[in-house]
Design brief:
Number of helices: 7
Order of helices and strands: HHHEHEEEEHEEEHH
Strand order of the largest sheet: 2-5-1-6
Strand content: 15-25%
Structural class: alpha+beta
């Protein structure tokens, strides 16, 4: 018995309603491929994900190598540096969040003051601040925070600042780390670790 074209289409439909249309003779191969993910497309996505993961791993390795190189360069001077000065230039409205985060981490002493700087990156279109687009030669108001800590607390301070102010946009700021030979507390005349240590700070918190 002969079947109608409609019957053939209905039988080929995997759903109960039987209304799905089978590809016509005029349907191109590209159109068919775009209707559903193919193994080739899935493989392409997987390769892209693997490539991104590899790039992230390579960046992590490079950052770690540069950090080790900087540490070795400092040690090559032959002078032991027990303290480090961390300078962070950040957006002004982020300062309260940074001071609160550092205080909770046990970092109680810091200095902050207003600065203005230019840090234009080619192709970025400049920094936006308070809805204003700044050009290549325009100064942007920032705040600089300075913290002196022992060597063991450097990463703690850096990570706390980055995690608090990072937005991923142009203008987040920069952090500089400088070696410090000595610290002197003027009130008592103390030098070194005794002068750097703040009562109730990180050392006291971790000793509990």
């Amino acid at each position: 018995m002969a079947m109608s074209t409609r019957s053939i289409v209905s039988l080929s439909c995997p759903h109960a309603h039987g209304r799905c249309k089978a590809p016509s003779a005029n349907t191109s191969l590209l159109q068919v491929q775009l209707r559903a993910p193919t193994q080739a497309r899935l493989a392409l996505r997987a390769r892209a994900a693997d490539s991104l993961a590899a790039s992230q791993r390579a960046l992590s390795v490079r950052v770690r190598a540069e950090k080790e190189s900087c540490s070795k360069a400092i040690e090559d001077f032959g002078v032991p540096y027990p303290f480090y000065k961390i300078e962070a230039t950040i957006r002004k409205w982020r300062v309260p969040y940074v001071t609160e985060a550092l205080s909770k981490s046990g970092i109680r002493g810091l200095t902050a003051y207003d600065v203005a700087g230019i840090g234009f990156q080619k192709g970025s279109g400049g920094e936006r601040n308070k809805g204003i687009q700044y050009g290549e030669n325009e100064f942007v108001d920032k705040t600089k925070i300075e913290v002196i800590v022992v060597k063991e607390q450097v990463d703690l301070v850096i990570n706390t600042i980055v995690n608090t102010v990072q937005t991923g946009e142009i203008g987040d700021g920069k952090i500089f780390v400088l070696p410090v030979i000595d610290v002197v507390r003027i009130r008592t005349g103390e030098h070194g670790y005794a002068a750097e240590r703040m009562s109730g700070g990180y050392s006291d918190m971790t000793a509990m």
